[in-house]
Amino acid sequence: MPALLAVLALVVTMVRVPAGMLPAAASTLTVAQAISAQSGTGTVHGYVVGQPTATTTVLFSAFTGDTAIAIADSSSETDPGDMLYVQVTSAYRTTFGLRSNPGLMRDPITVTGALTAYFTHPGLKSPSAMTLGGSTPTPTPTGSTGSYYAAAAGKSGESLKNALHVIISSGVTTLSYDAVWNALKATDQDPANSANVILLYSGTSRSKSLNGGDAGDWNREHVWAKSHGDFGTAAGPGTDLHHLRPEDVRVNSTRDNKDFDNGGAAVSDAPGNRTDADSWEPRAAVKGDVARMIFYMAVRYEGGDAWPDLEVDDATGSGTAPRLGRLSALRQWNQQDPPDAFEKRRNELIYSSYQRNRNPFIDHPEWATSIFG
Q1: Is residue 241 within 8 Å of residue 354, measured between CB atoms?
Q2: 353/180 Cα distance (integer angstroms)
Q3: CB under 8 Å to 239, separation ≥6 — which residues?
């Protein structure tokens, strides 16, 4: 009898379930979340998109084996950086190996196992359950409605700031600095070209694969310069996606750790931007984005969690003090450049797939006036 029960259990875990018929558990992760986590055991929902054969190589046809599959949050994903590599152990190969079952491509799948590197790539190994079907996990609440901001209702000024600090500091998932690379490839993806990211200041579209430190590469721009508070790149403000954006290496170096203000000379590598000895003026299309990122940082980091108390002031050239300005310019930019679709999508993705917190000034730009005057 024990042997028969074991066989029945295996059959149940391997049965094909039509898409949408199997509800995702509350703890189910998206692929993006699993890529960022990479520790402990997790249940992940995604779509079968190929067979990984090396760190950056995935087969999309002519499959050679049944021992691994790549899954992603989109059934049409082709960038290995946005995929989770899943080990297919012997118990599951007959049903889930792509050489034996090429028709699995683009099917939804839910997998439980150890979140750990596979092929020196974010992965899931030693699966304890693999099921076809399931539904994409939907975090709740989402957007600027619902109960997320309930504790801030009816508040203004310092009371509003304090309420928002608690809201956006609770239940937060922090990323490693290395994990930021893959996250930015998703949060800042070019809407017109899924292989590229949009650079913040220059506004150009550049290949996701050109991330690094060489000329022509893009790297991780800290909009709140990390020297203003000296918080470095440890998990926390130094890896907070709400103020990290892709930017050209040279442009990032030119901006350096300058405050934000109007005026200066034109930046040749980033048309529309201006700079002087201690300040940077971004192009018009992202002035509001920059302001709302700075406001977020000043509310999120209040000095009570081992990080410095970040404050916005109406000055430039504050050096390593945990301050950034110029407040009067940032207030103006928030009004002139309201949140657009790109900024709203980015906020939603950071909340749903990475950090589990939101930038309230994207959801409610008017709160910046209430808190910062």
Answers
A1: yes
A2: 12
A3: 174, 175, 176, 177, 179, 180, 233
Alpha carbon distance 185, 35 (integer Å):
12
**Pairing state of beta strands 123-134 and 279-281?**
unpaired
Domains (range + CATH), the chain: 17-134 (2.40.50.200), 150-372 (no CATH)
Pairs from 249-257 (Cβ < 8 Å, separation ≥ 24): 249/212, 249/213, 249/214, 249/215, 249/216, 249/217, 249/218, 249/219, 250/215, 251/199, 251/201, 251/202, 252/219, 252/221, 255/201, 255/221, 255/280, 256/225, 257/225, 257/226, 257/227, 257/228
Q: Please compute, for residue 352, the number of CA atoms within 13 A of its CA located in the half-sphere on the CB side.
A: 20
What whole-number distance in Å separates Cα of residue 249 and Cα of residue 206?
A: 12
**Secondary structure of the chain in HEC code, one letter for each residue:** CHHHHHHHHHHHHHCEEEECCCCCCCCCECHHHHHHHCCCEEEEEEEEEEEEEECCEEECCCCCCCCEEEEECCCCCCCHHHEEEEECCHHHHHHHCCCCCHHHCCCEEEEEEEECCCCCCCEEEEEEEEEEEECCCCCCCCCCCCCCCHHHCCCCHHHHHHHHHHHHHCCCCCCCHHHHHHHHHHHCEECCEEEEEECCCCCCEEECCCECCCCCCEEEEECCCCCCCCCCCCCCHHHCHHHEEEEEHHHHHHHCCCEECCCCEECCCCCCCEECCCEEECCHHHHHHHHHHHHHHHHHCECCCCCCECEECCCCCCCCCCEECCHHHHHHHHHHCCCCHHHHHHHHHHHHHHCCCCCHHHHCCHHHHHHHC
0.85 exceeded by the pTM? no
Question: Encoding tokens for residue 118?
Answer: 């596979």
Taking the mean position of all CA atoms in its chain, how far away is CA 70?
20
Q: Are 72 and 56 in contact (CB under 8 A)?
A: no
Per-residue pLDDT at 147: 82
pLDDT above 70 (res 18): no
**pLDDT tens-digit readout, 292-311:** 999 999 999 999 888 999 99
